[in-house]
Each structure stands twice: as structure tokens, then as C-alpha cells.
Amino acid sequence: MPRPAVRLALATLALCTASLALAAPATSPQQARSTSIKSKFNYLSFLPKSYSSKGEKVPLIVFLHGSGERGTDLNKVKAWGPPAIVEKDPDFPFMVVSPQVAEGEWWDSYRLKSMLDDVLKRYNVDPKRVYLTGISMGGYGAWDFASRYPDYFAAVAPICGGGIPRLAGRLKDIPVWAFHGLKDDAVPEQESARMVEALKAQGGNVKYTVLPEAGHIEAWVHAYGEAGLFEWFAQQRRP
Predict the structure, then answer these.
(1) Residue 114: pLDDT band by 50, 70, 90 thresholds?
(2) Within the chain, how many helices (H) and strands (E) appear?
(3) What is the C-alpha to C-alpha distance for residues 97 and 13, in angstroms, rounded to an integer?
(4) Using CB atoms within 10 A as the burial measure, which of 112, 139, 202, 223 is most buried?
């Protein structure tokens, strides 16, 4: 039979063991892991005749296409806007970068930022003269990209798009020129109007061209043609 001192020691050990068992956390069914995600964007790039890797920095236009130009064939991106213009005008004075999203995808502002960061490192671009424009789905993309990363852009021109009105205030210090056709049967004109009104309410520098007789396509034909958008871009510069 154990002596009293031995019995006390055994009881104390048992109590400590039970306490440790109760205090120990249960084994989790989840394990911590990490991964590195790399994103790839295919894009068209156009360099003006004045471009030199060590000369004067050039202005840059980023163009976001519409839903019809999604896919893997970059030639589809040449259908409208700046990439269509530079095919015929080798004297176009801006560098143009026109990315393409895959079929079924939407513009992702974080991925666009990563692409733009790479372009700014790779090319001799003036960071104070970077301009953003897009049509239809790309109009939505332009509103969103600029709203989330406003410090990149000297001016923005969303065409036939829309966005999140509560983010519009982030654009109040950037010149914005929006376009929409009143007879647009693909994207309601109210989509642009809501963003413009939200930006005006924040004291933004915004002008809005509504074309009373224009549909969807006619709005960007006008914006990139007779409206003088590129001349307006050239007048804008970040401080």
C-alpha cells in the first residue's frame, strides 16, 4: 500500500495531467498554406514616332475594349478606338496600350494596375501624362480602374459605361469626360448619368456629352472622332 507522501504525489501528478489535457487545443482540420499567384495580360502596344528609350518621355493612353473583343485573338481589339486609329495613323502622338481579357471574363482593376506598373517600368512613359478610356464593358472598367487607383491618371474618358457611385468621390481631382448615347439599347444612359451626378456632388471636374440621337457604337465613334478627345487629353497633366 503506498505511503501517504507517495499517494499525494500521485494524486498531484494525475491532477496536473488532467489539467493539461483540458487546456490543450484540439487538433484543427485546417492547415496553413500560402501560394504565389501570377497574372498574365496580353496587350497591344503602339509607340509614337517620337518614342526613344532614353529621350523625352511620351504620354500614354490605356484603352479598355468592350465585351465583343474578349478572347485570345488580339486582332479583335483593333476593332474600335485608339488601337483602330493607330492602325491607320502612324503619326498618332500617344503611346497606346490595349489589353485584352479572356472570353467570359470582366475587367479586373487589380490586374490592370499590375499591367500598368509593368508598362511604366518597361517603357519611357511620362507618369504625369497617363490617360484612361474604355467603351461599353471597358467604360465600366475605366470608371472602376480610375476610382480604385486615381493617382495613376491625368484624365479619364469612360464611354457608354457605369460604375459604383459611392466611389466617384475618389475621382474628384481628376478631369473626367464621359460620353453616352441617349438611344443606347445595350447600356442605359442612366449608367453614365449616375456616375456623373455622383462626381459632381463631390465637386469633381467632370463634363458629360450626351448624344440625343446616338446609340451604343455611335457614342465612341463621336468621342474618338470629332469630339476632340485626344486634344483634350493632351491638355491634361497631373501636378
Answers:
(1) very high
(2) 7, 7
(3) 73
(4) 139
pLDDT over 60 at 20, yes or no = no
> Residue 228: how many CA atoms within 13 Å on its side-chain side?
3
The DSSP letter of residue 26 is: P
What does the alpha-carbon distance between residue 107 and residue 89 come to, in Å, rounded to a whole number? Answer: 27
18 is a domain residue: no
Single-letter amino acid, residue 8: L
| pLDDT surpasses 70 at 38 | no
Q: 33 in a domain, yes or no?
A: no
User: According to the model, what pLDDT value does residue 32 have?
Assistant: 66
pTM score, two decimals? 0.85
Strands 155-159 and 176-181, by their bridges, are parallel
Place of cell 469626360: 177
CATH number for the domain harbouring residue 134: 3.40.50.1820
Tally of domains within the chain: 1
**Residue 201 sits in which domain range?**
42-235
The answer to whether residues 180 and 219 touch, using CB atoms and an 8 Å cutoff, is yes
pLDDT reading at 238 higher than 70: yes
Q: Is 151 exposed, middle or buried (0-12, 13-18, 19+ CB in 10 A)?
A: exposed
Task: Answer for the pair 96, 82: CB distance below 8 angstroms, yes or no.
Answer: yes
Cα–Cα separations (whole angstroms), residue 211 to 27, 93, 173, 217, 220:
65, 27, 26, 11, 10
